[in-house]
Structures are given as structure tokens and as C-alpha cells.
Amino acid sequence: MAIFSTLIYGALSSRIANHLLEAYPEACEDLPPVWFAARIDAAIEAAAGFGIISERAIAEFVTKSFLIGPDFHRHPRVNSLLNDESIEPDFRVGLIGILLTSDELREAGA
To answer: N or C: which end of the chain has fewer CB within 10 A?
Structure first.
């Protein structure tokens, strides 16, 4: 079972990496491949910590970590939204760009 989970995780990580490289090359170009993969893995792990489990929502979380900043989820407003139990975990990440101001998003990336 662990091998199956590792294969699924590897495939997910690979699909997200390909998406980032195709859609947002400027967000990835300065990172050595090992760091690029490590940032993806760290973001996937952070997403899981918020109960985010769908591939779409995980990919969106990872993408935000590259576009906003690797620790964007630590910003108080983002963190509050990602921990809001009244919202389904997989929907929380999609609300970040809707409910936060551009100033809050900049702060989250600082």
C-alpha cells in the first residue's frame, strides 16, 4: 500500500510541476530542480495540514505558494481562512483570491 501511495504522490507532484512550468515559468525558472521539487513537496504537505485533499485544490494551493510566496499560508488572514471549519477544506484555497485584498496578498508573500 505504501508503494501505491508513493506512486500516486509522485504522479501528483509531477503533474503539478508540469503545470507550473507550463503556466508560470517565471515563477520557477530561478529554482534549481531539487529546490523546485522540494517547494512543491512542502506546499503539498502544507495543503494536507489544512485538510485539502482534492487534486485540484492541492494544485491550486501549490500554485499560490509559487505565485504569492512559499509561506503565504502563515499570513493571519490566509491562515484563518484555511482553518475555517465552516467551509469545506477543498473550497477554502479558492476563496483566498476572492476574500483577501491585494494588499493582504502582497503581505502574505512578504
So the answer is: N
Q: Based on the number of CB atoms within 10 Å of its own CB, is 6 exposed (0-12), middle (13-18) or buried (19 or more)?
A: exposed
At which residue does the C-alpha cell 476563496 appear? Answer: 95
Which pTM does this prediction carry? 0.90
What pLDDT digit, counting tens, does each position of 12-42 carry?
A: 999 999 999 999 999 998 889 999 999 999 9
Count of CB atoms situated within 10 Å of the CB of 86: 5
Average pLDDT, the chain: 92
For 54-62, the CB contacts below 8 A with 24+ separation are: 54/90, 55/12, 55/15, 56/90, 57/89, 57/90, 57/91, 57/92, 57/93, 57/94, 58/12, 58/16, 59/15, 59/16, 59/19, 60/93, 60/94, 61/93, 62/16, 62/20
